[in-house]
Design brief:
Elements lengths: L1 H11 L3 H11 L2 H6 L2 H7 L4 H12 L3 H10 L3 E4 L7 H4 L7 E6 L8 E5 L6 H16 L3 E4 L5 H11 L4 E4 L13 H7 L3 E5 L11 H11 L3 E4 L7 H11 L3 E4 L10 H8 L3 E2 L3 H8 L19 H7 L7 E2 H8 L3 H14 L2 E5 L2 E4 L8
Parallel strand pairs: 3-4, 3-7, 4-5, 5-6, 7-8, 8-9
Antiparallel strand pairs: 1-2, 2-6, 10-12, 11-12
């Protein structure tokens, strides 16, 4: 029966309403597969053109062969009737009928939080997404996101750096890496987490598919955290879907003059909860926060005194080197040398000439 479910979801992923109508009458995908054109036209006359295309494609399918091809590619498939299908997805409106997976499904016994935000995020967004992804993963939280450029990618990277599980919900087939610059996390998540999609293998990353998949991101998660977002963005769509699904929504506050913070500030004004730290978020959700082990054996104690002094002056917002010098109370030349050292060690990042922030790829600083 799973092979027929695979065929059904492969062919009808773009017409979920009709798919449910067919299941409502025929009860299972195998019965749909074995029906004929005349019966379809009689039962659903308004779908005549769709039926003809449906029947034509069906003639070219050999169910067993296509099912084997999918398995040979290392792609799993879970229909909504399988016990392993995530219960949290069964409970949402317009639930997926099936999920294609490269890697594994989220563990239902562990908490999962979605981290989403702007593709063209700032250095502040990069650092914040990485920080939340890393520290939450260090404490056993599974990180869910959309593997997009920007906040999504940094959240995934943070979780992977902590050795945690993270899951990318794709707007294309699980055998398609999009965007290409995220190839590193695409390959890593197939080993430490999973890549999930309701779209069949080979589906290209078409723009209209991404908003639809957002309900899966929120559906798999206990709560949704928005790090940075413009006033009109996919991240706010995910937040709205989370609220419809009865999930908690959190937002990282930002400056009122920053366009990338307007979406988050709007959410806060509408009643979203403030996320000012991973620890605070876990307390809000009632999650246990044990003391983490320093990643890679590094922490602030590994820094020299001057490095530690300069490091503590840095934050998520970029500071000019002169501001850092004043805060540190050190000679300019020493500050310059120290910043170079911190960059080489992965603690600081020069985002533009003479402007520095904490690194978006932290090295386990606790």
């Amino acid at each position: 029966m799973e092979a027929y479910w695979y065929w059904f979801c492969h062919e009808l992923y773009l017409d979920r309403v009709w798919a449910r109508e067919l299941l409502g009458y025929y009860k299972n995908p195998e019965a749909v597969y074995r029906t004929n054109e005349a019966e379809l036209l009689k039962l659903f006359p308004r779908k005549a053109a769709r039926h003809l295309d449906f029947i034509k494609k069906r003639k070219n399918w050999v169910i067993s062969e296509e099912w084997e091809k999918c398995q040979d590619k290392g792609i799993g498939f879970y229909s909504c009737e399988m016990e392993a299908f995530p219960q949290t997805l069964r409970d949402i409106p317009d639930a997926p009928l099936g999920i294609f997976v490269k890697g594994e499904l989220p563990d239902p016994g562990l908490p999962a939080i979605a981290i989403v935000g702007a593709r063209m995020c700032s250095a502040y967004g990069q650092v914040t997404a990485s920080l939340f992804g890393r520290e939450l993963a260090e404490h056993g939280v599974q990180i869910i996101s959309g593997m997009a450029a920007g906040v999504d990618g940094y959240a995934h990277r943070g979780a992977l750096k902590a050795g945690g599980k993270t899951f990318g919900i794709l707007g294309c087939g699980v055998d398609v890496c999009y965007p290409r610059q995220n190839r590193d996390i695409y390959e890593a998540m197939a080993i430490s987490g999973g890549l999930l999609s309701e779209y069949p293998p080979g589906t290209p990353p078409l723009p209209y598919l991404f908003p639809i998949r957002n309900r899966v991101i929120s559906g798999l998660s206990r709560a949704v955290l928005v790090v940075e977002a413009r006033e009109k963005s996919g991240s706010l769509i995910t937040a709205d879907l989370a609220l419809e699904q009865g999930k908690e929504v959190y937002a990282v506050p930002g400056r009122i003059d920053d366009v990338l913070s307007r979406g988050c500030n709007h959410l806060l004004a509408q009643g979203a909860a403030v996320a000012d730290s991973p620890e605070g978020l876990c307390r809000e959700l009632g999650l246990l926060m044990p003391v983490p082990k320093p990643a890679d054996g590094k922490n602030k104690k590994s820094l020299e005194s001057a490095e530690l002094l300069v490091y503590t002056c840095l934050g998520f917002h970029a500071l000019h080197i002169e501001e850092i010098r004043k805060k540190a109370g050190l000679p300019l030349l020493q500050v310059m040398r120290t910043l170079v050292s911190l960059e080489l060690k992965g603690y600081a990042c020069e985002i533009r000439k003479n402007y520095y922030t904490l690194s978006s790829h932290p090295q386990g600083v606790s």
